[in-house]
UniProtKB/TrEMBL annotation, chain A:
Coiled coil: none annotated. InterPro entries: Glyco_trans_6 (IPR005076), Nucleotide-diphossugar_trans (IPR029044). It comes from Pipistrellus nathusii (Nathusius' pipistrelle). It is found in: Membrane. Belongs to the glycosyltransferase 6 family. Keywords: Glycosyltransferase, Signal-anchor, Transferase, Transmembrane. This is ABO glycosyltransferase. The keyword Translocase does not apply. The keyword ATP-binding does not apply. Its cofactor is Mn(2+). Pfam families: Glyco_transf_6 (PF03414). It is a single-pass type II membrane protein.
TrEMBL record, chain B:
The keyword Lipid metabolism does not apply. This is Globoside alpha-1,3-N-acetylgalactosaminyltransferase 1. InterPro entries: Glyco_trans_6 (IPR005076), Nucleotide-diphossugar_trans (IPR029044). Pfam families: Glyco_transf_6. It is found in: Membrane. Keywords: Glycosyltransferase, Signal-anchor, Transferase, Transmembrane. Its cofactor is Mn(2+). SUPFAM superfamilies: Nucleotide-diphospho-sugar transferases. It is a single-pass type II membrane protein. It comes from the Eukaryota. The lineage of its organism: Eukaryota, Metazoa, Chordata, Craniata, Vertebrata. PANTHER family: GLOBOSIDE ALPHA-1,3-N-ACETYLGALACTOSAMINYLTRANSFERASE 1, GLYCOSYLTRANSFERASE-RELATED. Belongs to the glycosyltransferase 6 family.
Amino acid sequence: MQVVKLPRMLYPQPRVLTPSRNDVLVLTPWLAPIIWEGTFNIDLLNEQFRLQNLTVGITVFAIKKYVAFLKLFLETAEQHFMVGHRVTYYVFTDRPDAVPRVALAEGRRLEVLRVPAAARWQDVSMRRMQMLSDFCERRFRREVAFLVCTDVDMRFSDHVGVEVLSPLFGALHPGFYGAARQAFTYERRPQSRAYIPWDQGDFYYLGGLFGGSVSEVHRLTTACHQAMTADRANGIEAVWHDESHLNRYLLDHKPTKVLSPEYLWDEQLLGRPAVMRKLRFMAVPKNHQQIRN
Amino acid sequence: MRCRRLALGLGFCLLVGTVLCTLWAYADSWLPFSYIPYYLPCPEIFNMKLQFRGEKPFQPVARAQYPQPKLLEQRPTELLTLTPWLAPIVSEGTFDPELLRLIYQPLNLTVGLTVFAVGKYLGFVQHFLESAEQFFMQGYRVSYYVFTDAPAAVPRVPLGPGRVLRVLPVQSHARWEEVSMRRMEAISRHIAQRAHREVDYLFCVDVDMVFRNPWGPETLGDLVAAIHPGYYAAPRRQFPYERRHVSTAFVADGEGDFYYGGAVFGGRVDRVYEFALGCHMAILADKANGVMAAWQEESHLNRRFISHKPTKVLSPEYIWDDRKPRPPDLKLIRFSTLDKNARWLRS
């Protein structure tokens, strides 16, 4: 990121003896911030980002029936995602005609990228890594500074902004943020490239939300794709597909920011614990059987 | 008649002349320093295209056993660990040194450390270097840069492998404030001429201090500041910022995050260059207006860190004053003052 000079701004003084949150960890042992509500001043961060004049790309895959999720996704993104900054939506789909026309604010545009659909939903999920890797080279490098790669069956319900941006970020899976590492659903078979032993692991990261600079996302998606290809050649498929490989990658290449479960939540399954001050990006209830076939 | 007028006229001129001379002599001794052009900025470095050593890409971390980070934890007494602009505030307990070693060691980094030992301050160098050999960036390549007016008198301290000492001559000055403020100029010039090719990261610290505990890669960042031990608990209106509008280091009421210490700052060598150069230009602008900021270059450093926020902040563990009683929240003092008699030194 460029060096920028901030204008004079007025905001409350940070106090050394007063932690911003005393109910959660806000810094990983490798000194990466864990983003929770209350840890950041969005006006400061917005100003720093605005002065650099950069564009954020956001990728979604709307394959087969998943195109139905696009309208709500895009409409809520317009309300909550990187508002006030330059954004490019990259919609990967096998049905370009089904992409809805959503009114976009100034400085924001939508690109439809036609891709083939795989038969199995597991393959659809895993192919994302390869496609992202390809497009990083082909397009993203020249068009955007940062990439946010997300699932499409979601809606934005509160602010998701520049506080997430950094060279490499992952998001904590809402089902495991309080769990011991032995309970994480890592791939546990040593034959797989995604294997993580019982006594290792920092967090359980989501396959449905990650990102960073284009070069780091390229590196991550390429590595995951290669690992999945190697697994396929050995006749093994990791228990949670691309998510297992993402977890292995982020164990070996520590992210520079970690997003709290505020950034991907399922209210139906998990309710609203006190520690979640904001629910920003939420799963849309869906019938798994119906949508995956 | 004419003689008398002539005598009166001459007498009057003499009187006025004497008064003016007295005033001038008085003003000259009252002003802290003399006029510009006192020293010119360094035009030869302004247009230099510095080839910095370049960023190192992420390397995979070797596998290791370490406890799982606990996400949900009740911590009643603790320091702030993250600034509002998401820069980590580093203190004992916030990081795992073994994990950081695994991340940073493969990058094969060289870290520079500058100190200024002018006049009697040369007496601190021995103890400073010995303590640095024990605690500063153990296991990394280190370049000490000692700026002094007496290069021959720099003590030769035995250094570990991959660690070197470079002695750089600087001019001495009558006033200690001048010596202090010229550091920004010397640092930026040194980076432009040399250090940009030799180191990846650079720290600039005071010499009248010693390392008492490990100072490692947890301190590395793009632009690093340290919180002054005297003001970490104070409200911002009590920070000793420069409060006169006439100075370029002016900070208004209601502005300011932390009061940072001038004794420690650093970062990636290209960012330190920009930072030191920016401070140097601000100091020069003040000089042109006959102003010296309240705490010399520390005032300018604080001004600059408000508009160019550091990407990492070191807790007062990294810049302590041993004369202060240690609060329980600061668990491990790593770098602190050597007790000295300031007046003796600065005379």
